[in-house]
Amino acid sequence: MIEVDDLALTYPGGNDIPETQVIDGIDLNVEAGKSVAVIGPSGCGKSSLLYILAGLMKPTAGQVTIAEEPVNRPRPDVALILQDTGLLPWKTVWQNAIFGLTLKGPMSLKQSKRALKELGLKGMEHRYPSQLSGGEKKRVGLARALAQNAQVLLMDEPLAALDTLTKEHTQNLILALWKKHEFTLVLVTHDIEEAVFFGQRIVALSKRPASIVDEIDNPDVGEEAYRQSSEFFRKVRQIRALLTS
């Protein structure tokens, strides 16, 4: 369970630069094993919220707890996937996948092999990031998170810049892995269709300073062919109207 209580974030000013309030009083609960998509205007504070959940930033006020423990530093059971995937260009696919796990023993290495196989990367272990397509790089970043055996997966615009078909294929893959491994998923995106595809609940944020405008239940996530259903497109229209109102 992720619990966000009255969260606020202000960047300090200095040298004639005024302080900037980024987040203003966000309350949010995410049940274990559920998925939430966070969407809002560009620059509204979506990524900052995710970094606070990951323990990489400290809020100005309020608190975040995961599994009833306050978040004040990165946790081993929480994985963050950034837009650029954060792959090390001088390391191979395998070395990137096991990065940070070498001290955790054979079980973690076994999980890494399983993750590469699940993501269709078996046989690419000795390639370098420069030899991979954009979609393959995204999958390596995801494999690293799965190898970590994370209970919470945080994704910040994870599929930006991919072509439509590659994006949809990777979205299907991520959703299948979420259903199989039952990790808690929090996705930040500016893509309305992606938010509707992933989020059992969709949280719409206001412009900066971010506060929650509305929360929309989306219970059909994970159903076969949901992307082609009339309900999917109805939700897309609902979110678009909400964000443009």
From TrEMBL:
<dbReference type="Pfam" id="PF00005">
    <property type="entry name" value="ABC_tran"/>
</dbReference>
<dbReference type="InterPro" id="IPR017871">
    <property type="entry name" value="ABC_transporter-like_CS"/>
</dbReference>
<dbReference type="GO" id="GO:0005524">
    <property type="term" value="F:ATP binding"/>
</dbReference>
<protein>
    <recommendedName>
        <fullName>ABC transporter domain-containing protein</fullName>
    </recommendedName>
</protein>
<dbReference type="InterPro" id="IPR003439">
    <property type="entry name" value="ABC_transporter-like_ATP-bd"/>
</dbReference>
<keyword id="KW-0547">Nucleotide-binding</keyword>
<dbReference type="InterPro" id="IPR050166">
    <property type="entry name" value="ABC_transporter_ATP-bind"/>
</dbReference>
<keyword id="KW-0813">Transport</keyword>
<keyword id="KW-0067">ATP-binding</keyword>
<dbReference type="InterPro" id="IPR027417">
    <property type="entry name" value="P-loop_NTPase"/>
</dbReference>
<dbReference type="InterPro" id="IPR003593">
    <property type="entry name" value="AAA+_ATPase"/>
</dbReference>
<feature type="domain" description="ABC transporter">
    <location>
        <begin position="2"/>
        <end position="232"/>
    </location>
</feature>
<dbReference type="GO" id="GO:0016887">
    <property type="term" value="F:ATP hydrolysis activity"/>
</dbReference>
